[in-house]
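Example 4.3 (complexes with small molecules)
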Amino acid sequence: MPKKAIVIGGSIAGLLTARVLSDFFEDVVLIEKDKYVEGGKIRNGTPQAHHIHVLLAKGREIFQDFFPELEKDLIKKGANKIDFLNDIRYRLPSGWAPRFNSGIVTFACTRTLLENTIRHQIQKIPKIKIEQGEQITSFVLEKPNKISLKTKDGKEIHGDLIVDCTGRNTKSPSWLEDIGFPKPKETKINSFVRYSTRRYIPSQKDRKWKMLVILNKPISNPRLGGIYPIEGGKWLVGLYSIGNEYPPTDDDGFLEFTKHLESMELYDALKDAVPDSKIHGYQVQGSRKYHYEEMPRWPENFIVLGDAVAIFNPYYGQGITSAALGAETLGDMLKNDEVKNDFTRKFQKRLSMTISLPWTLGTSEDLRWPTTVGKRPNMITRMVQNHAQKVLLISPKSMLAAKSFQQMMHMIRSPAIIFHPLILLHMIVNNVKK
Ligand SMILES: Cc1cc2nc3c(=O)[nH]c(=O)nc-3n(C[C@H](O)[C@H](O)[C@H](O)COP(=O)(O)OP(=O)(O)OC[C@H]3O[C@@H](n4cnc5c(N)ncnc54)[C@H](O)[C@@H]3O)c2cc1C
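Answer. The structure with flavin-adenine dinucleotide bound is encoded below.
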């Protein structure tokens, strides 16, 4: 058994990675620059936690595998179990999605509750030691192809495996360059997404849904909005825009924006709900992927995972699930004893393949908007994307299309599912052209 693994960054990717490594290493040390806070408080290292975090059904599956007790814990603390078609009032560009028991299930709560509950599971694993309030500030070249870490107060930390899970502000590209490694190539696609989010206390109406989503309508209406149930019976209300729009962060503007969505249902629900927080804005940096898999030289004891490798447009709710897929990939490779020969390089290659699905699903959607900046997809991707759009449009009239589309987006079925002959038949019968 290898001796010591170090994980930098104790957010969701770091916690999942530590969980996986604890099956294979004698000691796992998780280094987090923040001091953790309990209750509903949001720490400095995770400002995104003010906003809605949807966990895809694939992410839930992996979580259940890693932490069999997690869901029970979350539900006890007020998280809501959600069937993505049965429990959601879902406005698609062509009408309302059908409501039925789809089996596409996940749970809804704040990101803070999710992260804290995962951490409490991790704290039960004796092999994992959490170092809070410890910041890594550079890499040190230990041997020609091996790195160690330097902390803010000058301490040097060695590990048989070091994993960067420091998220979207990762410094690995420049820290590697500082010790003589080449800079990784990067791909960027920016659709200029902006968020405004506010917590509400709902009025005591008898509603027939747990969650409300009103999608935008490419390319005539770039506004999207939704109500997401969180613990304590409250709502997180998110308003989003793509391109040149800005969802407002003032009281009147926030409500006014909801009148310009594809349906007035969000406005109607908010009219008599009570605001329970200030409005938080967020300007998304776009999607970005570092191509570590193409590095000509790579340290033999270092890998990168989670947002530190790829950030996705958060619109599509893929970040946490992609981090979970990365941790699962790492576990699979360690189980198959692939640690020897060139393990770290092989891992980055495998990870790049694993996250290519969420990357393509999200970025090809973004590239439908003329305001998006980035390389346009090839002809095959465009054809698949056009077909996916038709499947979405037929969804109000076809339960199979609605379910298949959601299964693909939740990554529990491959995109091949949307080419089912019955869906194609529905399209012909309903004469779907666009
Ligand atoms: C507005 C917004 C909305 C989102 N919505 C969704 C959604 O609906 N669904 C979804 O799945 N994903 C969503 N995401 C993405 C999601 O937040 C991340 O994918 C997820 O949190 C996993 O990130 P991570 O653990 O890789 O990094 P992060 O969460 O960014 O954490 C990085 C951690 O590393 C620590 N750290 C950083 N530098 C150092 C250092 N030098 N030394 C020690 N520690 C360090 C930080 O303090 C932090 O704890 C959203 C993101 C944003 C910005």
